[in-house]
Amino acid sequence: MRALIHDFETAGGSARHCGVVQLAVLGGSLGEGGAFDLQWQACDHYQPGGSIDPATTRVHGLSDEDVAHCRDYRRAIPAVYRKAARQGFDALVIGYSNTSFDNVIARRLGCRPRRSLDLFIPAYRLKKRDGLASASLGNMYRELTGDEPTHAHDALFDVTMTAALITPLMARFGFTGFATFLDWATTGQPVPGMRLRYGPARGHTIESLDDDALTQALTGWRGGSIDVLASLEAEYTRRGLTARPEQGRLF
Hints:
The protein contains ten helices and five strands. The protein is an alpha/beta fold. The protein has two domains: 2-185, Nucleotidyltransferase, domain 5 (2-Layer Sandwich), CATH 3.30.420.10; 188-251, no CATH class. β2 (20-30) and β3 (36-45) form a beta hairpin. It is globular and about 60 Å long.
């Protein structure tokens, strides 16, 4: 299967509105065992159309001066995704926490993947199952490969780390075929101890919510982690509450 792995570094703020300072993409083919055969890559820095938040600069190290003479991301990045699509790499787009971040930015810039895989989802399942300290990209790279994430938050290094996690994640869950792993990783699974990341109950486990808060979270879910939705639905059913409410606002 042909696939594209992508990662953005931004000027800060919401994925729906932020400017982009770096994009790295890897195009290649995935073998049945999950090995990624690199066939094409692109990586560049961009002018974000505004100032970079100083807190964000402290994360990725890029300042306004570093990107002042770069091309405007809104004009340059759509061509990158068009080139990827012409080579068939849009069959599957892979990232790490890309569901709520990288994919949101990419859609603004013309990316229309046929399927998406967020490796944070199986990584978080592994964290909860095995009691790991963190499901961050750098920590998972260290845990599963034994190497240090020496250049974390550089987009090219981040996509390289992401590619390196596919096979060991498959192995930790006992998968030998990528197609089966892909189906499992893109189907929501209830995860005990799942914490909400947004809304009034942010930081609380789903099991700890009272009935009203649980109903509000389920009603408000309109996208994000498929495992959050599955966990909300499983807890709602376990308590024997009434039929699932209609979804409304984003929590």
